[in-house]
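hey can u check if this looks right to u? its 408 residues, i copy pasted from the old doc so theres a chance i mangled smth
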Amino acid sequence: MTVPAPSSYLVQNYARAPISFVRGVGCHLFDAQGRRYLDAFAGVAVSSLGHGHAGLSAAIAEQARTLIHVSNHYLIPQQEQLAERIVTAAFPGQVLFCNSGTEANEAAYKLVRLWGNGVHQGRKTRMLAFQNSFHGRTLGSLSITAMAKYREPFAPLPQAEFLPFGDATALEAAFASAGDAVAGVFVETIQGEGGVLVPPTGYLERVRALCTRHGALLVCDEVQTGFTRTGKRFGYQHEGFVPDIMTMAKGLGGGVPIGAMLASPQIAALLTPGLHGTTFGGNPLACVAALTVTGQVLVPAFVQQVTERGDQLKAGLVRQFGASAVRGRGLLLGVQLESEPAALVAAARTQGLIVGPAGNRTLRLAPPLIISAAEVDELLERLAATVAQLGREPAPSARQSAPARPGH
């Protein structure tokens, strides 16, 4: 069999746009030809402090000159500092550092398994998750990811039951049918990849109550919603409950790869030496980057600023597309379209605007958290020009239904 010569030395698993960014300043990116773009995607909600941030760049450079990596065979003081900051901003517990969101969810999955197999002598084995969910690409995290395009090529996977997101009656029925065999429930506080779907008010509190009643662990996936992205330090804080386990990544390091899992003390204690680990997770360089980011984004005045800019952006989107088409919180917003967003995303680039797709025919907006009021206005102007360029109104028609049970 003759294998055709590749056009690149890279595995072709990404459908990359024909553009290369070489520099960034604040909320703007510059390509190899010097063209400027307003970044309303932040590398999939990663670049919290934008591009070329002076404080973050200086902290990374200084740590690189001092010590990049030592491994988790030794104490890493920056881990302790960062873990304390996360716990203080969230809930009492202990933190495990890793390199990505999927690794954080993998650790959470293993911890739930430990709890069901050890504490409950194998009586708790069932995992519940939700339709339209996305928790990562390792085999464990894929098993609790509902989206078929990510799951099916790697079947068979460990079994999980997928329920309608936002439907408390369906969740109650699942618990009733399982008896006390449910080990854990995995939920995103906003389903980002699934279409920026927000659960109805009070739903997550109901999930918490059902988990408590039936002795199941509640795992909140805050990979995309954490660190002030939604106008709260963490997405679960929009409601009055606390999870047993929380996973984080994306905006934590401002572009330097780092993920984390926070678990309540009695649950975290199950991870004894040798049961789980990572070579690179939480090394000094990554932790210093995250300390710099969290030192800014977790400050109350900054959180308030994100809320204000999010309200401004959402109001502008509602004016353009209608209230029924716009979903999300803070600076994680989605616009329901009549068709897949690829054409609009490509057209936006010609208008000097970087936006992204999500599931359920959704345009996703997740700009750097430092975006200014003037830049929000610029974003809206460029998006309006994009829609005009396409010559059509992308908002759903009155006859078209929105994705299952979104909140607004």
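Residues 393-408 have pLDDT under 50 and may be disordered.
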